[in-house]
Structures are given as C-alpha cells and as structure tokens.
Amino acid sequence: MGKSTTASMLAAEGCAVWDADASVHALYGPGGGAVAAVAALAPDAVAAGGVDRVRLRAALARDPTLWPRLEAAVHPLVAADRERFLADSAADIAVLDVPLLYERGIDAECDGVAVASASAATQMARLLARPGVTPEAAALLLSRQMPDAQKRALARWIVPTETLDGARSAVRGIVSEIRSRPGHA
User: Fold this and answer.
1) What end-to-end distance do the CA atoms of the chain give, in Å?
2) Which CATH architecture has domain 3-179?
3) What dihedral do alpha carbons 143, 151, 38, 6 form, nearest 10°?
4) Sorting pLDDT into bands at 50, 70 and 90, what band is 122?
5) Over the Cα atoms of the chain, what is R_g?
6) Bigger pLDDT: 122 vs 113
C-alpha cells in the first residue's frame, strides 16, 4: 500500500517511527530472539543462525496452521520491542508502522490512525515485486489483512500512495494537524 514510504515521509517530518517489520527482521536475524521459536515450528526456515523469510513464506504456504503458532511465538517479542520504543521515544510524535494494526488491536494504543492506501492493482504489483513473493503467497498475505475499504473507514487519516506527491502532501497535512492541536508537546 505504500506504508513504508509513508513512514519514511513521517520520519522526514521529524516523527519517531517504529517499524514492526524491522523489529521482526531483527528478531529473525542471526542470534535473534525469535530464531529458536521459528526453528521449533519450521526447522527448514532457519539457516546460518537466522530465519530465511523466503523459506518461511514457503512453509506458511504449505501449512496454513503454522500461522497462528508462529504469531503466538513472535508477536509477544514484537510487542515488547514496541513498548521499549514508546517508553524511550523523546519525539513529539511517535509513529507505529504496523502491517496488521487493526487486526492485532494495536490501534487501541494510538491517538489516531493514518492508513496508507493504494488501488488493489498497485497493492498486488508492490507485493509481487518483493523477493520470493509469488501470486499465491501474495494472495495468502492479503487474505490475512483487513480489506483496504474497511481500514479506510476506521482511520482518522488516509494517505493516498498512488503518487509520491499525493502521499507527501497528506503526510505534511497530518503532521501539521497534530502539531497544531492545543496542548501538543
């Protein structure tokens, strides 16, 4: 949808940004806190002391029952990292870049939610451009997410990400609105 690009734009505006995907990458890296749990669930997905995400996606595609077990093992580690970020952040605006924000109920921790949104065709093209993502894997990823229209209906702000200029303009408007609120630090 353009979530990472939107998060980068928010960072460029001086916001502190926590990236759930980066947290998972660190947990999956050599010696990371989630490697042993993944090895216990999907041994073929671990190589060189870390989790190989392409192999993990293949394991998830083969065995859909693996998803909830993987989530139960990894999500608490990610949540702890997010809490550390929020406790340590000194920025006036803290942003949580989370792919499954609504699905995990993390929106309840937020003062407002901005949804990066693009057309279904753009979303599929962006997913297929990722290394190792097949049309089947992309469909599986999308099936686990709340539909874009539903996220848009729940969000306080929408960031249209079809163009960089449109996204940048929306991001600047959001940051300006937040900083102009009475009592904003």
Assistant:
1) 30
2) 3-Layer(aba) Sandwich (3.40)
3) 120
4) confident
5) 17
6) 113
Q: Residue 70 in contact with residue 62, Cβ under 8 Å?
A: no
pLDDT of residue 185: 61
Model-level pTM? 0.83
**Domain-by-domain residue ranges, the chain?**
3-179
Strands 94-97 and 50-51: unpaired
Q: What is the dihedral of CA 35, 38, 40, 41, to 10 degrees?
A: 180
CA distance 51 to 9: 29
Residue 182: pLDDT band (50, 70, 90) is confident
Of 85, 88, 115, 86, nearest in space to 100 by CA: 115
